[in-house]
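Format notes (please read before filing issues)

Several people have asked whether sequences and structure tokens are stored in separate files. They are not. Every record keeps both together, in the order shown below: the sequence lines, then the token lines. Line labels are part of the format and must not be stripped during preprocessing.
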Amino acid sequence: MSQLHVIDHPMIQHKLTIMRDKNTPSKDFRELLYEISLIMGYEVTRDFPLKEVEIETPMEKTTMKMIAGKKVALVPILRAGLGMVEGLLALLPVARVGHIGLYRDESTHKPVPYYCKLPKGISERMVILTDPMLATGGSACDAIALLKEHGCRDIRLMCLVAAPEGVNAVMEAHPDVDIYVAAVDRTLNEDCYILPGLGDAGDRIFGTK
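Then the structure lines:
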């Protein structure tokens, strides 16, 4: 069964509060999203397997631990998910990056796919799927289904802010996918935006309306 992981480190809570403020400019919003994504990345990768290796320090030979060859792919849901990739790449510089394009139909509130480009051999990698906002869960569910169609078996969904409705939708549709978030907010409004939320993450990242 999937699990919900709320990463509520004090520094994340502090930075997220600044991001929520409607007066925070796009430059600061992007920088804070980078920082939070980097911090969250440590928790998403906490269970990576280790192996013992022999090295020589300036003092002596010793046995220490290193990551045991875990292959990772980062897949942002366009466009807002792009804002989380740079922070994760700072932690996982050899990760491959794919892209899934989905937009929300303003009348039906359902996701519409328009683009998919994934790294070769992605089925052999652990995939971190990124999208700052988990609202209805529609985009996340469709993106996960698309990854599974390409043979992916180890998928982790990483979001900044989630609504309970979105969390429940993903858990019901994909009980094998763990969800990592910085906060679970109260609910969705009639336009399917998260409350209190932080507005449209894509617009705030890129300075568009």
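For reference, the curators noted about this record: The chain has a mean pLDDT of 94. The two ends are 38 Å apart (CA to CA).
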